[in-house]
Specification:
Layout: E1 12-16, H1 21-32, E2 36-40, E3 50-52, E4 55-57, H2 63-72, E5 76-79, H3 87-100, E6 107-110, H4 125-153, E7 156-161, H5 175-179, H6 183-203, E8 208-214, H7 237-246, E9 259-261, H8 264-268
Parallel strand pairs: 1-2, 1-6, 2-5, 6-7, 7-8, 8-9
Antiparallel strand pairs: 3-4
Helix pairs in contact: 1-2, 1-7, 3-4, 4-6
Length: about 300
C-alpha cells in the first residue's frame, strides 16, 4: 500500500456490477487499499447475457475473473452472485453480503447497470422500467437496507456511480443529443446525483457518508463500448477508481454530499492516483478540454 493512500484494512465493501469494467476496477482498487471486497453481478463463473435493444447481448467478464485479479495482487474478494433485476435477489443482497463479510458491511458501491439506449418515441415500457431499476431503484433499496447496519456501527460509506450525461444538454444541441438514445438514462443519473446529496444530508448525523462519482468524459468498458463512438477519446478507469476510494475513508463530517468526476476531482484536490493494484503512481489527472464546461472540479 502506497504511503499517504487511504487504508481500508478491516473494512468490508460491497461492489455491484463487479464482473467487468468500472465495477471491477473499483473492486480492485478497494482491495488494494486493504478492504475485503464482496463482488456481485449476475455473471459468477460464466458470462450471462443482458438485454439491449430487445435482444440478448453477451459481454465478456465474470466475478471469478475479478476475484482472480484481486487475489493475484494480494487482496481478498468474495464472490456473491445476484441479479439486481430480480426483486427477491435485491431484497436479500445486503443481508447475504453482511453475512459473507463476517457480520459487517462498511462500504456500499452502487455501480451495477446495463444501459439500453433508445429514443423516447421508440422506447418500450420494458426498457423504461429496466433503466429505472438498474440506476435508481436498486441503489435506493440497497442503500436503505445497508443503513441500519452502518448506523449500528457508527459509520459507513455509500458511493453511487453517476454520469456526466446527467449534466445539462448545452445549446445549440450537439449532434449526439439530437440523435438521442440516452435521454432517459441521463435523466435517471441526474436523479441519482440528487438522491445521493439528499441521502447525504439525512445521514450526516449518523456518520454515514454518501457521495456520487462519475467519469469526467467516458470510460471504454466491455459493456459500454458499442455506445461510445470509436473515435471518441476515453479516459483510464484507474482515475474513477481512485476517486471512489477517496470517498470511502473519511468521516461524513469531512466528506459527504459530493457529486465528483473522475478527472476533475483528483486534479482539483491534487490526489495521488495509483494503479488498480495500488503499486504504481499514475500521471496527475488532467480534465480533458472536451469535458462538460459546467462540471465543478471541487465537487458539489
Amino acid at each position: 500500500m502506497a504511503q499517504g493512500q487511504p487504508d481500508l484494512t478491516g473494512r468490508v465493501a460491497l461492489v455491484t456490477g463487479a464482473s467487468r469494467g468500472i465495477g471491477r476496477a473499483i473492486a480492485q482498487r478497494l482491495a488494494a487499499a486493504g478492504a475485503t471486497v464482496i463482488i456481485t453481478a449476475r455473471s459468477a463463473g460464466t458470462a450471462v447475457p443482458g438485454k439491449r435493444k430487445g435482444a440478448d447481448r453477451l459481454i465478456s467478464g465474470t466475478l471469478e475473473e475479478t476475484r482472480a485479479l484481486i487475489e493475484e495482487a494480494g487482496g481478498r474478494a468474495i464472490v456473491l452472485a445476484a441479479d439486481l433485476e430480480n426483486p427477491a435477489e435485491r431484497a436479500s443482497l445486503i443481508a447475504r453480503a453482511t453475512e459473507a463479510g463476517g457480520g459487517r458491511l462498511d462500504i456500499l458501491i452502487n455501480n451495477a447497470g446495463f444501459a439500453d439506449y433508445a429514443r423516447i418515441e421508440a422506447m418500450s415500457d420494458e426498457t423504461f422500467e429496466r433503466t429505472i431499476t438498474h440506476y435508481l431503484r436498486a441503489p435506493f433499496e440497497l442503500a436503505r437496507d445497508a443503513i441500519p447496519g452502518m448506523k449500528a456501527r457508527g459509520e459507513g460509506w455509500i458511493v453511487n456511480i453517476g454520469s456526466v450525461t446527467a449534466m445539462s444538454a448545452l445549446q445549440p444541441f450537439a449532434p449526439h443529443h439530437m440523435r438521442g438514445g440516452d435521454t432517459l438514462y441521463a435523466s435517471i443519473k441526474a436523479s441519482l446525483h440528487r438522491f445521493s446529496q439528499g441521502l447525504a444530508a439525512e445521514m450526516l448525523n449518523d456518520n454515514i457518508a454518501v457521495n456520487a462519482v462519475g467519469p469526467s468524459t467516458a470510460i471504454r468498458t466491455p459493456g459500454a463500448d458499442d455506445l461510445i463512438p470509436k473515435e471518441y477519446p476515453t479516459e483510464d478507469v484507474a482515475y474513477i477508481a481512485a476517486t471512489v476510494l477517496a470517498m470511502c475513508h473519511l468521516p461524513a463530517a469531512e466528506r459527504t454530499g459530493n457529486v465528483a468526476f473522475s478527472m476533475h476531482w483528483p486534479a482539483h484536490h491534487k490526489l495521488q492516483v495509483m494503479s488498480l493494484d495500488g503499486r504504481t503512481e499514475l500521471p496527475p489527472a488532467e480534465p480533458p478540454a472536451w469535458s462538460h464546461p459546467h462540471i465543478i472540479a471541487a465537487g458539489i
